[in-house]
Specification:
10 helices; single chain; globular; 189 residues; mainly alpha
Length: 189
């Protein structure tokens, strides 16, 4: 499954050019991402090298895909592949690294914060009244595409948090059930 998914993403990455505004906002110093995003996307963030960026993103994505295939459920893996493919197909590769860590949080919860801190324009100023934040909120020509992008990024965030909330409740329920069964068994003896 990973090989097929990666082949589709490679094809999509070569048939869909990179988001044309990304190099412009990087040159202008108003990238609508957090400071954590820069080291994760270094070929485009520091060198503005689209060819190296494509190779870097595809190579690291392949590693994450193998890791997810081995360490997560089929549902999580398929959802990751679909959302990841969307970024490659639409040329919004800058969201691929955000997606990696959103889904990695299913395996190791603190990685959720890497995803959030890389997507949201945090770390540039204490007041959120800077060009990065303004570009993230208002700097889009297509509000529907902007909404869809944030919705797709939020899917793993919401699912990870929901699974963390549900898991302890399930354990408490199992403990309560076990105590009730033990108490009932003792009264029957």
């Amino acid at each position: 499954m990973v090989i097929v998914a990666e082949a589709v993403k490679i094809y999509s990455s070569f048939s869909s050019p990179i988001d044309r505004f990304l190099p412009i906002v990087i040159k202008n110093g108003v990238t609508p991402y957090g400071v954590v995003w820069y080291p994760l996307n270094w070929p485009i963030a520091f060198l503005l090298n689209e060819s190296l960026y494509r190779v870097w993103i595809l190579a690291v994505d392949f590693g994450f895909s193998i890791w997810f295939c081995r360490s997560s459920s089929i549902m999580v893996n398929v959802l990751f592949q679909l959302i990841d493919w969307h970024w490659f197909d639409t040329g919004t590769w800058q969201n691929v690294s955000v997606t990696w860590f959103g889904f990695a949080a299913f395996v190791y919860f603190p990685l959720l914060f890497v995803s959030v801190l890389s997507k949201l324009p945090l770390g540039w100023s204490a007041t959120l009244n800077d060009a990065h934040f303004q570009d993230a909120i208002y700097g889009h020509e297509n509000d529907l595409q902007h909404f869809i992008g944030y919705a797709l990024i939020a899917i793993p965030w919401v699912l990870v948090v929901a699974s963390r909330i549900r898991s302890p409740a399930r354990k408490r329920g199992q403990i309560l059930t076990s105590l009730c069964v033990d108490a009932w068994t003792q009264t029957r003896n």
